[in-house]
Amino acid sequence: MFNTLRSRLLAISRPVTLALAGALLTLNVAAILYGVFARYIAGGAPIWTDEISRFLIIATVMLAAGAVWSEGGHMRVGLLEKLLPTPFARLLNVYQWLLTLLIAAGGAWVSYRYALSVNMFTTSGLGISRTVPLLSLPVGFLLLAWHALLYGPAPLKTVEDSLHKTVEDSP
Predict the structure, then answer these.
(1) What tens digit of pLDDT does each residue of 19-34 get?
(2) Looking at the 3D structure of the chain, how many domains does it have?
(3) Who contacts 13 (Cβ-Cβ below 8 Å, separation ≥6)?
(4) Cellular component terms, GO, for this chain's entry (predicted)?
(5) 83 is in which domain, residue-wise?
(6) Could you count the other beta carbons within 10 Å of the beta carbon of residue 134?
């Protein structure tokens, strides 16, 4: 029952975070296109277009990182897992999972503390507190920890797994 709940939460959480990341990416493209239009056609772009584009791309990557990790989409070398005997491969998977949780939780804590420490400074283009855009870092690290926690210490998916599934699903 616990595994079913975990897999359901993961099945809901992944598409939601990827949809949010996609929405931010769409906003980013719109801001860039507006900046290009304003600069080359209207004669001058506002300074905020470059700044918001930078903040949106960072937020997009941070939001998508956990979902992409749980889908096995990050670049990694899985050869060692295949060469090791099964008990050692399981131990390696647990180690990788714990390390991911530790790094994600640590990244969330450090980036949250840093985001709060710069609240007295404002951004040059948008004129908002630097804390606002920097909060995407702890949120992204927390989502990575959340997805890793839900995924558990199981082996991460590989490209070969996706290819085998595609072949099996075809008629």
Answers:
(1) 999 999 999 999 999 9
(2) 1
(3) 66, 67, 143, 146, 147, 150
(4) plasma membrane
(5) 1-159
(6) 21
